[in-house]
Amino acid sequence: MGKHQFQTEIGQLLKLMTHSLYSNKEIFLRELVSNASDAIDKFNYLRLTEEQFKEEEWSGKIFIKLDKEDNSLTIGDNGIGMNEEDLMENLGTIAKSGTKAFMENLTGDAKKDSNLIGQFGVGFYSVFMVAEHVDVISKKAGEEQAYKFSTDGTGEYEVTPVTKESHGTVIYMKLKDDEKEFLDKWRVEEVVKKYSNHIAYPIVLNYSDVEYEGEGDERKEKRVQKSEQINEATALWTLPKSELKKEDYVEFYKTISHDSEEPLLYLHNKVEGANEFTTLFYIPRTAPMDMYRADYQPGVKLYVKRVFITDDEKELLPPYLRFVRGIIDSEDLPLNVSREILQENRILANIKQTSVKRILNAVKKLEGEDFDRFVSQYNRVIKEGIYTDYTNKETLLEIVRYKSSSQEGLVSFEDYISRGDSEKKEIYYIIGEDEKVLRNSPLLEAYKKANIEVLIMDDQEVDSIVTPMIGTYKEWTLKDITTIEAPDSKTEEEKKEIEEEFKPLVEKIKKTLGDEIKEVKISTRLTESPSCVLKDASDPMAGMAAMFAQMGQ
Ligand code: ADP
Ligand code: MG
Predict the structure, then answer these.
(1) pLDDT tens across 518-545, in order?
(2) ipTM of this predicted complex?
(3) Distance between Cα 249 and ligand 1 center (Å)
(4) What is the bridge-based pairing of β-strands 277-283 and 325-330?
(5) Which atom of ligand 1 lies nearest, measured to the CA of 80?
(6) Which is nearest to 472 in space by CA: 381, 418, 393?
(7) Does this model's pTM top 0.90?
(8) Residue of 187, 203, 191, 186 whose CA lies nearest to 36
């Protein structure tokens, strides 16, 4: 209790936020509503799993109160609440290691930077864009004492015990002088509708209004307090597709993803039959910032009969689809399913399988710029999929793209075989770190001369692990040109002659280089360059294997 310093990073973050997100400050409402909804979700789950809350008569609600006289906006919920420790940990420190990355990724471009907010769990701090003082009054479900967390956002905060009747959180914000627009009923309603229309709980707006009594000279002004539910409060995914427009899907996406861009793709399905479930998936237009971090936040939430179960389960979809955002709502899982047993659950395994197929098929159907955008953001994780998801390997091989020795831009295996030699059925590739070096490789000379296309794979870390295990694509065999004979090679006899002729030279090179090399060979692969250095094809690439392990694959 008493006064505390904010973590230094928070001070920095607050400064950045007030400056860089200035033009987009309305998102503070989205962040607070989303936190309130999460807190209600969590209490809802407690009611299912813990005896002591089962009897409580309760339904989740959020309220927003506007007070023009006091210059304040208050938002409250009857969710799980926070105790003293929670307040200090959740609001006084930045627990997630991603925040550092957030800071590093700030661009100074308000629109881009606001996209980052929320991805790293810095949502609450957005209140300081509009508030000069904030009190968070909270009581945790099942505990006696309530606490108040107060701050003006400049480096210090104070926690004191207070009284509060029931569990939940109330956030009182004294608005800055030039942020009075957020005391206006219409403005607040507009913002809430824009971002939070399909939050599953009612949001009730309390505001004061002026009414008139009497006629003519007798007419008198009267202030009255009114309240009104301002959102739909139906979980969007439960509505029939026919009732939903693209805008509805996009807005809902923005509330669950904190992204301000439109998604690249959305996919809403209701599956009926023995195993009933609804899924709503989105693919972000820009890959999530934490996609290559081991502590990435999974993007899919699990619900059972519209009750939130978890948003922290990395196995709802395979790890290579960790960029997908959305919801799975099952009708058949038991409501009190424990998070621990989810992993071995057969119902869930079935949902996962169906979902992966749906998502990949939808990606395959993307066209033109949208498909190119997908490849620019996710080609690398698709390669991870090729390595880890044997069941969907064929589809993934249709999606993945590579550079080519003979074509502009990126090509697919399908493109390649449509141009290739259909007698031989071979797909040639070369792997290395640098595109330029690969394109100038002496090994390519013979292929260029013979007009044979070679795939240029310059994501060495990934390609060197993934490509060798592809094996074949539609009966075409993949061949690493550093390990095979070049096209148009000489007959066996001619080769023997050449080998004899150059034997003394080979011996001399071997002697000179000694342990630095494994082998010196006469080759017919080169046409213009006299010699080249090759890597050993069986050399393991430890780096990539480590990366897969880190992502839990
Ligand atoms: P995020 O929501 O991404 O975790 P926030 O900065 O929005 O990040 O919130 C930080 C944490 O504070 C939340 O994870 C939650 O534990 C807690 N919190 C915030 N608002 C509430 C609330 N209304 N009720 C209960 N807990 C809350
Ligand atoms: Mg939040």
Answers:
(1) 778 777 666 666 676 766 544 444 445 5
(2) 0.99
(3) 24
(4) antiparallel
(5) 25
(6) 393
(7) no
(8) 203
